[in-house]
Amino acid sequence: MNSTKTQVAIGISQPYQCNYLPDQQEQLLIIQEAVDDTIFERLLALGFRRSGNAIYKPRCPSCSACLPVRVPVNELKLSKSQKRTLSRNKDLHWRVTEQVEESHYPLYEKYIRLRHFDGPMFPASEEQFAQFLTCNWMQPRYIELFNKEKLIAVAVTDYLPNSLSAIYTYFDPDEEKRSLGNLMVLLQCRLAKLLDKEFLYLGYQIDANVKMCYKRRYQPYQLLTGQGWQYGS
């Protein structure tokens, strides 16, 4: 369901321990209301992200490690490693759905249990899954990746007028050698081009966190700076 609002109310959270950099305090700007696709895309361009129904942006007291990243998909140049990932996975097929399927949650639970048992999302639950990956005011798309008939990865993605926004990807840890996280970003870039979108928003690059420092691999990319969006190196 879309809203026609052109103004939104922004609140701010209390500081709390950062989930990504344990020695830092985290604080968020938060929007807890529905917005339409155009307004949400403008917020993305200002560095905001979506989690469930909430829109947020880090505004931390003494840290600026979270760097918003987007990829101009028509300029993407594949690295040798990314070309190998695509070649290695030619036997897989994918589709896009607007529905959460019964097979989604078991794969998500396995992914969190085996890959993120040391993080704030563990243990997974169906309630947490729904709150995190569904939205009342926007219809996410679910890019499903299959090995024959077996679901092995899902990329939750928002469609905006001029861009796609990557919300979250989870995959079967037993298929780790396929580099499925990398593959799903490449598929989102491909889908954005097919849909004639300009950007894929990837969220925040955090150089000091090993699980959040991969977004510079998609070249060329843009970082949101005090001077606006700038190409990174």
| Helicity range | 10-25%
Give me the number of helical elements.
5
Terminal Cα span: 39 Å
- Main sheet attributes: strand count, strand direction, barrel closure: 8 strands, mixed
Radius of gyration: 17 Å
Which class best fits the helix and strand makeup?
Answer: alpha+beta
Tell me, rounded to a whole number, the average pLDDT. Answer: 94
Count of extended strands: 14
Range of strand content: 25-35%
Low-confidence segments: none
| Order of secondary-structure elements | EEEEHEEEHEHHEEEHEEE
User: What strand order characterises the main sheet?
Assistant: 8-9-10-11-12-7-13-14
Globally, the shape reads globular
Helices and strands in order:
Layout: E1 11-12, E2 16-17, E3 25-26, E4 28-31, H1 37-45, E5 49-51, E6 54-58, E7 67-72, H2 80-88, E8 93-97, H3 104-115, H4 126-133, E9 141-147, E10 150-159, E11 163-171, H5 180-194, E12 199-205, E13 222-225, E14 228-231
Parallel strand pairs: 11-12
Antiparallel strand pairs: 1-4, 2-3, 4-6, 5-6, 7-12, 7-13, 8-9, 9-10, 10-11, 13-14
